Amino acid sequence: MASRESSYLYLNGLRVHYLHWNLENAGPLVVLLHGLASNARIWERVAPFLVEQGYTLLAPDLRGHGLSDKPDGDYGFESFAVDLSAFLGAFDLGRPMLVGHSWGAMLALDLAARFPVGPRAPLGLVLVDGGLNQLDASGRTWEEMCERLTPPRLAGTSLDEFLARLNAFNPRWQPDETDIQIILDNFEITEDEKIAPRLSFDHHMQIVSAMWEFRTFQRLQQVRCPVLAVPARPAEPFTEMEAEYLAYKERGAQRAQQVLPALKLHWMEDSIHDIPLQRPGALAALIAEFAAALHV
Question: What is the SS3 assignment for 87?
């Protein structure tokens, strides 16, 4: 089995870190896009299952995230589309399938809408608990949504305190040591064991603002490739917030299927938002089945 490799590219003056699997064998290409304030390592548990099926995998740390450069400037969808287009252009591996998690699903959808045909057009999209709704369809105002999506100020938090928070965050899922190391790669850790998010607060909020403006259903209308959506449904009983968010996702999925009747929808049951960590085997099986149909 091909092991995970870590590399860098310089693209349009940006130093981009990425992980790759099975690159030397040049199998069918799958590009994996992480979510907001995450990093490429979130795909580590999914990757081995896809490598076994012969796929070549690329997972970049997006601008401002992980080990990639964190320049000042615009962090809207246009900037990330330019980055991703250059990233894909650096590899002569044919048209890719794009798999995005959360905000990464929005980036995948955006790229597919910008390049519906031609050599940059993706072969297919997999939207993992993201890319199926618009934030302004939530029933909340921008001010309310901004407050909800503003990240906690974790800079300066002790590592021990953060780990205690992490273990108590969701009683339905306890991260193991590998999960914890993947999550910790979202942060820099100082010599005195304090953490600081790799994605700065200002850049985070720029992305949140762009997400509010993102027109999901217009983008779906522009897509010409097959699309599989894999939203998460939490285990019952639902908290009030979970029930509200699930209803929002269900409304989005219904409207998305109206806009794009060929959309394939598979709810990941009893799952947290971070499906790639909690349900990697099940998610990989869905991706592989979908990808196999595209490469017939």
Answer: helix
